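Q: Structure for this?
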Amino acid sequence: MSQVFHHHLEKFIKIDEIEFTSILSFFKTIKVKKKEDLVLEGQICKTNFFVLNGCLRKYFINNKGIEQTTEFAIENWWITDNISYEQETPTAFYIQAVENSEILVIDKYSQEKLLKDFPKMERYFRFIYQRAYAASQIRMKYLYDFTKEEFYDHLCKNHPEFVQRVPQYLIASFLGFTPEYLSEIRNKKRS
Amino acid sequence: MSQVFHHHLEKFIKIDEIEFTSILSFFKTIKVKKKEDLVLEGQICKTNFFVLNGCLRKYFINNKGIEQTTEFAIENWWITDNISYEQETPTAFYIQAVENSEILVIDKYSQEKLLKDFPKMERYFRFIYQRAYAASQIRMKYLYDFTKEEFYDHLCKNHPEFVQRVPQYLIASFLGFTPEYLSEIRNKKRS
């Protein structure tokens, strides 16, 4: 399963098998069950997660006491609360498994040592954060520009595999709908 | 003025004067007047901007034909449309000077060459994108969690120098208010 990570790294930098074995030694591999929590609100988010297979999500409890999902991570994506991770402050988020998942886990100090020992990983993480930042800029535009219905249409059109894969109540939580309202929209689209 | 950039780089990596002179040769320095456009919607955003002094903003024209500001960049911040810059696709944004500003400008190919010639700049840009991504995660939470009034209160409390510095109609454009509505809220806060 760790070969998923090697293959992913190879998209950005050249890593031979010996290097990869050393790089992998900085990580732990864990398996989590669907709905298992990896991070709870108020904790310091001490680790960064890379999804080998499965799906994780990040959410917070909003003012109305409702779970607001802000991010999903499927295969080959990283997820953490970056502010909490970097500044070692309590997180406002939860991170939870959406599916049974296999995850690479690294803590901040191991990640720093990894970057020191393998400077080419600076290039890799530069690409990763650059891509994540670009995606968040577009997401921000959608949040300002789209109605919730338009955002749902956009998801269905551009990421149909995602809409199929993730339970509908979590799609609703991502869009800021109630599950009932999402159901209504879906019925409207069908008719 | 370029020493602002050297000082900024030194926060992340060690750069001596000779290296800095070489690094600087990858950039152009330009001066822009208040309200001057650097990027227009529909163009390919070919350059990345670093603010030496002054202030830039990024905005798009929303469905209602109104300017929606999504980002400001003051001294020591980078700004571009990262998707357009990286994928060489037409941008949906405008980038405009909020104040008379002095800017370092680099195009994508020069930035790639810079990273190749000075691998330590990978580390620098890794920090920059990591920081920008973390900031955008928090911003996303605010967009979901705060009412517009709460977002304004948060800005006033946590970034008073910013609220003082930027014209009120642009603060309104950032928050998604009409200038009249912002004026109303400000009067309420005063009374």
